[in-house]
Specification:
Belongs to the glycosyltransferase 34 family. It is found in: Golgi apparatus membrane. It is built from 15 helices and 10 strands. The chain is of the alpha/beta class and 433 residues long. The strands form 3 sheets. A 6-stranded mixed β-sheet has the order 2-1-3-6-5-7, with helices on both faces. A two-stranded antiparallel ribbon has the order 4-8. It has a two-stranded antiparallel ribbon with strand order 9-10. It binds 2-acetamido-2-deoxy-beta-D-glucopyranose (NAG) (2 copies). The site of one 2-acetamido-2-deoxy-beta-D-glucopyranose has 3 residues, from helix 5.
Length: 433
């Protein structure tokens, strides 16, 4: 109760005094004096409430009913103060207190050879998540994977809170979201679609890391979080991930060990689609992984770091994928041994080599393989459907995204006796049923 009141008081202090250097110093003292306790899964009622509304974890004892993102206060924001913005020019923007330097497993490795230091946005830290989750599960034996493994998977995707920069993007986002909902419904997998930008400094592809962490600690019943980029689409609606195969692993990505460890290639894995186990290891990974993405300066410096360390990475701000490859090739453990690189089916299927073959597949193959014969996922890497400009021919991207949607949609409509006249068409025809 004392801790709870202190937490509320600390939050109040932070919120009301947000913005000046004086208060930043106050916060630094607060943080340094351990007033920010570890987050605990002790208030079951709160958890149930959070689960019921798919809400984000709230601060203990506070009732935050939020209607806008600006009001949304997450535990992590206790630590994400205005310090950075207030830091005088010329001074490093990375907080450098001892406590913060020790805050993560990842800071040492990320900082090796550079001045990168952890910005502690992932506070309050959790160090006994496996125990907390175990206790929770003993109290709620039939939540989650009681019945079958599928109910222990949460499919997570996300797109931006504001409209797309072009006229077609929002329609494509809607179609790709419908596709994920269809897949989830057909396989009894719950879907969490996010449109809130939780951590303002974690931009683009980095934004999924705070989201996954938030969902992980709000859903102790979930065993696997399944991240899928908004520009990826299920194209085999019958294929199921062989989850039992991954029982000894905590992270499953599409990729090839040889490309990562021998060639040190930044495209040896794809971080647009992956499965992440709900456990302490994953919380630690998210914390460590996010170091390079936590600010503009970190991403610039990280970009230089990965361009030097990896064989084929051009120089630009570091992305989450390069950061993970970098982590694996420079200081692999404890991550390496718990990561499964899946190459036996298209957990991520690169669109450019798939999309022209859909008709051929419909002629000669059938759903169920998940591999090149009928790819599980088609991922429109680089098409950037919601942005002003992608890396590829925009006309081709839009055409092919619509075709991929119809290719998948045919597998849904077939149950109702319909299919698309052709993959490029919204028109339907009746099938013989
Ligand atoms: C940080 O870690 C170093 C080395 O492990 C240790 O000597 C130091 O006391 C730690 N500082 C804090 C504040 O925990
Ligand atoms: C872009 O793609 C469309 C459709 O595939 C094609 O007709 C057009 O020639 C392409 N444009 C360029 C510049 O390659």
């Amino acid at each position: 109760m004392l801790i709870l009141s202190l937490l509320v008081a600390a939050l109040f202090l932070l919120k009301t005094t947000f913005g000046s250097a004086q208060q930043a110093r106050t916060h630094r003292r607060l943080a340094a004096s351990n007033l920010l306790p570890e987050w605990k899964l002790q208030d079951e009622e709160r958890i149930m409430e959070a689960r019921a509304t798919e809400a984000f974890p709230r601060l203990q004892g506070t009732k935050l009913v939020t209607s806008s993102i600006d009001e949304l206060v997450l535990p992590s924001q206790l630590a994400a103060t205005s310090e950075e913005r207030d830091a005088p020019k010329g001074e490093s923007s990375f907080p450098r207190s001892d406590k913060e330097e020790n805050a993560s497993h990842g800071d040492a490795e990320a900082a090796a050879g550079s001045s990168l230091l952890l910005k502690p946005w992932l506070l309050p830290r959790i160090s006994n998540w496996d125990e907390q989750r175990q206790i929770w599960r003993e109290k709620h034996p039939c939540e989650g994977n009681c019945n079958n493994y599928k109910s222990s998977i949460l499919l997570v995707s996300s797109s931006r809170p504001s409209p797309c920069d072009n006229s077609h993007g929002d329609h494509i986002m809607l179609k790709f979201m419908k596709n994920k909902m269809d897949y989830g419904r057909l396989h009894g997998i719950k879907v969490f679609y996010n449109m809130a930008h939780l951590e303002i400094d974690m931009v683009d592809y980095w934004s999924k890391l705070p989201l996954l962490r938030t969902l992980m600690i709000s859903h102790p019943e979930v065993e696997w979080l399944w991240w899928m980029d908004s520009d990826a689409i299920f194209t085999d609606m019958t294929f199921e991930v062989p989850i039992a195969k991954y029982s000894d692993y905590n992270l499953v990505l599409h990729g090839w060990e040889q490309l990562v460890y021998e060639k040190k290639s930044w495209i040896g894995i794809n971080t647009g689609i992956f499965l992440l186990r709900n456990c302490q290891w994953s919380l630690d990974l998210l914390e460590s992984w996010s170091v390079m993405g936590a600010s503009k300066e970190a991403r610039e410096e990280g970009g230089r770091l990965v361009a030097r360390a990896l064989s084929d990475r051009p120089l630009f701000d570091v992305d989450d994928q390069s950061a993970l490859v970098y982590k694996l090739v420079t200081n692999g453990e404890p991550w390496k041994s718990k990561i499964y690189m899946e190459g036996s089916y298209c957990l991520h299927g690169y669109w450019d080599s798939i999309v022209d073959k859909y008709e051929e597949m419909m002629q000669n193959s059938r759903p169920g393989y998940g591999d090149e014969r009928w790819p599980f996922v088609t991922h429109f890497v680089g098409c950037k459907p919601c942005a002003k400009q992608g890396h590829y021919n925009e006309t081709r991207c839009i055409q092919q995204m619509n075709r991929a949607f119809n290719f998948a949609d045919n597998q849904v409509l077939q149950q109702y006796g319909y299919k698309h006249l052709e993959l490029g068409s919204v028109m339907l025809e009746k099938t013989n049923r």
